[in-house]
Design a protein that fits this description.
Elements (H helix, E strand, L loop, with lengths): L8 H37 L18 E4 L8 E4 L8 E7 L16 E6 L21 E9 L20 E5 L2 E5 L11 E7 L19 E3 L13 E6 L7
Antiparallel strand pairs: 1-2, 1-3, 3-5, 4-5, 6-7, 6-8, 8-10, 9-10
């Protein structure tokens, strides 16, 4: 005798089985819809379109990097920032500049690293004919901040770009950055108040003609004030804290 398909336990079981399939399909469609909606939401909310996860092997702004070689750290490669080998944070990638000019690196840059194209994986050697290798071409500059101290780019620390808050000394008519705490090769003679395009724009507090120094200095001594690219360093005398 074959089982009944109209009523009874078997029919009830069959209905539940079909119901599970229907509910499973509905939940599957709902989940897919949520995924699609999320992706569309990301796409629509993103200023430039869909979210793109950067390739960790590429040098990108906001990514991290490590030298390609300990022996020749002339090139860097991107690496995940949570990788223990990561050494620097890429604040920005800027084009090379010609003198006179300073890279447009952001505040807090500890070091400026040239990126060569093609990468300089090793020191070029003369050819068999004795010809000198071609000079490498700088393709980009990495504006980098160390992931761990020290941070020479911080104001007064003696490295990075010359910025307000740094200290400097005059060496052979050049303004040379040096740590404010006296730990550098040169004693700090002045404090940098600002770097301006016009000497008349130096802020209040800029000192002139005082000893040991304290004046307005051209960033590029070989340029005339009216030439493009000229910058001026507004300084005051560096006061060494008294020791009790």
């Amino acid at each position: 005798m074959s089982p009944s398909t109209s009523d009874g336990p078997v029919a009830e079981s069959t209905r539940e089985h079909h119901l599970q399939h229907v509910l499973g399909a509905c939940f599957g469609a709902l989940a897919l819809g949520m995924v699609v909606a999320t992706v569309l939401g990301i796409w629509l909310q993103s200023p430039g379109g869909p979210v793109v996860i950067p390739d960790p092997d590429k040098l990108v702004r906001g990514g991290c990097a490590v030298p390609l070689s300990e022996d020749q750290p002339t090139d860097y490669i991107g690496i995940a920032c949570d990788d223990p080998d990561a050494t620097i944070l890429v604040l920005d990638l800027v084009g090379p500049v010609e003198a006179p000019g300073r890279p447009g690196c952001p505040f807090g840059t500890d070091q400026i690293i040239p990126v060569y194209e093609p990468p300089m994986l090793e020191t070029p050697e003369p050819s068999e004919s004795g010809e000198e290798p071609e000079e490498p071409v700088v393709d980009e500059l990495i504006c980098a901040r160390n992931l761990y101290p020290p941070h020479p780019g911080d104001p007064g620390a003696g490295g990075g770009l010359l910025v307000a808050g740094d200290c400097a000394a005059v060496v052979e008519d050049l303004v040379v950055e040096t740590p404010c705490d006296g730990s550098g090769e040169y004693a700090a003679e002045m404090e940098v108040l600002a770097i301006v395009g016009d000497a008349d724009d130096c802020p209040d507090g800029t000192e002139t003609g005082q000893e040991p120094t304290g004046d307005v200095y051209p960033m590029w001594p070989d340029l005339l004030p009216e030439e493009p690219g000229q910058e001026f360093i507004c300084t005051r005398v560096h006061e060494v804290p008294a020791v009790d």
